[in-house]
Amino acid sequence: MIDQGCDLTIAVGFNLVDAVNVAAEANPEMNFVTIDGWSNGATNLKPVNYAMNQSSYLAGYLAAAQSTTKVVGTYGGMQIPAVTDFMTGYYYGAMAWGADNMTDVTVVGWDPATETGDFIGDFVPNSGTSKTIAAGQIEAGADVLFPVGGDQFGAVSEAITEAGIDGRMIGVDKDIAATSPEYAEWVLTSAEKRMTLAVFDIIKAIAIDGGTFTGDVYLGTLENGGTALSAITNYSGATAQADVEAKLAELQAGIVDGSINPLG
């Protein structure tokens, strides 16, 4: 892309962060974007990050509302901030439902206080390790699982089916019920990372609006639509879905105005 004279190069994923930092420093006349990455200081490299704790907080609240056991689970691909941010928001969202309803809720797979939990060790899709973790969390009583490790939805759906429970899972990054319909019957919602919106906004600001490219961080939030909760499907909790949706809207407003901290 550099050799082809691209004005803007976008690198997606933390695995490319070292390479894009090197490229930006070596080519100061060109502009670069790193999604889920960071800049070592080059002013021509814009990091795009997401406050995934925000939508995940809503997902955790919904998970606890859905759960019949009041045990919900989460696990990650690797223990890195881009993963644990989801898991921490989910944890505190589930705890918030418990506090609101004076009911004990247990989250297995992640404890933000001790920063310990369940991790696959990589992001290989639907690995045996992923399925083993999911099965272990189900055995511990979890009936809603939130796998934060790329495509682990085949592994989770198999674990749910083999356990013979009426379980649900929550997708990450995109609306899994829509993009992977083979898993739709198990999906409760998804915590979306709307990368397309960030990329559109950055390109529009330069190419259409005539703005100046900067290395300032673009943070996707509930407020700017950079992250969001997908439509709720397969909900069967004791509280009416309309009431849960109204509460989620209230929580989202609180996160946006700062009165609710999704990180506890």
From TrEMBL:
<dbReference type="GO" id="GO:0005886">
    <property type="term" value="C:plasma membrane"/>
</dbReference>
<dbReference type="InterPro" id="IPR003760">
    <property type="entry name" value="PnrA-like"/>
</dbReference>
<keyword id="KW-0472">Membrane</keyword>
<feature type="domain" description="ABC transporter substrate-binding protein PnrA-like">
    <location>
        <begin position="3"/>
        <end position="206"/>
    </location>
</feature>
<keyword id="KW-0732">Signal</keyword>
<keyword id="KW-1003">Cell membrane</keyword>
<dbReference type="InterPro" id="IPR050957">
    <property type="entry name" value="BMP_lipoprotein"/>
</dbReference>
<protein>
    <submittedName>
        <fullName>Unannotated protein</fullName>
    </submittedName>
</protein>
<keyword id="KW-0449">Lipoprotein</keyword>
<dbReference type="Pfam" id="PF02608">
    <property type="entry name" value="Bmp"/>
</dbReference>
